[in-house]
Amino acid sequence: MGVFEIVMTLGMLVLLQAVLGFDNLLYISLESQRAPEAQQSSVRKWGIGIAVGLRIVLLFLLLKMIEAFQAEWFSISWEGVVEGTFNLHSIIVLVGGVFILYTAMKEIFHMIVVEDFQTEIKRDASSAKSVVAKIVFMNAVFSFDSILSAIALVSGTGEKPGEISTTGFWIMVVAILTGGALMIWLADGVSTFLQKNRMYEVLGLFILFVVGILLLTEGGHLSHMKLFGSEIHQMSKATFYFVITVLVLTEVVQTRYKKKLLAEQQKKSK
Fold it and tell me: Engineered SS bond to 47: which of 84, 135, 176, 260, CB 3.0-4.6 Å?
C-alpha cells in the first residue's frame, strides 16, 4: 500500500467509526448518569478506554475466527410462528437490541411515573463498576458493524485475493484508537448537554429506542428469522438516520414553539 492509499483508507475508517459510533456515544452519555455524580466522567473514560482495547481484541478474533462467528449454533423451526438459524453474531446483536430497548423503556417509564426524577436517579444510582461493565458490553455489541465494515474496506490489501496485509491490520487498529479518542473527547460534552437540557434527554431515549429496533431487525436479518410467516428485514442506516433527523427536527420546532407561546403568555399577563 502506498502512502496516499494508507491515508485515504485511514480517513474512511475513522469516518466510518464516527458515523457508526453515534448511537454508542448516546448510550454511554445516558448510561453514565447512573453512576455517582463525582465518578461519571471517569466512568465514561474508563468504559470507552476498556471497550477500545476489547474492540482491538475483537478485531483480531474476527480476522482469525470469522467462520466460527458465522457458524450456525442452533435453529428454530416453528412453522407459521417463528423460524430462524442463529449464529454467535446474530445472538449478540439480538441480545444487545433487547437490552437497549429495555434500558430506553425503563428510563422513559421513570420519567413519566417518578415525581422527583433527580432524587430517583440518586437513590437508584448504580456502582461505577457496573456502569462501566454495561458500557463495555454495549460497545462490544455496537463494534460488530464497524469492525466488519472496516474488514470489508481493507480486504484485498494482502498478497492473496481477500487477504488483509499487516499494514491493513494496523490501519484498522489506528482507526479504532482514533475513534475511541474522539468518543472520550465528545462524551463529557454530550453528557453535560443532556444534563443541562433535560427535555433533550427524552429525545435521546427515544433515539436509543430506535437503536434497539435497529439492532433487533439486524439480528433478525442475520438469523434469517421469520415471524408469523413474514421475513424480518434489516432497517437500513439511511432509514435510521432519516428517523433520527425527523425526531430531532420535531423536538427543535416544538421547543421553539413552546418558548414562543411562553413569551406571548408573559406579555398578556403584563
Answer: 135
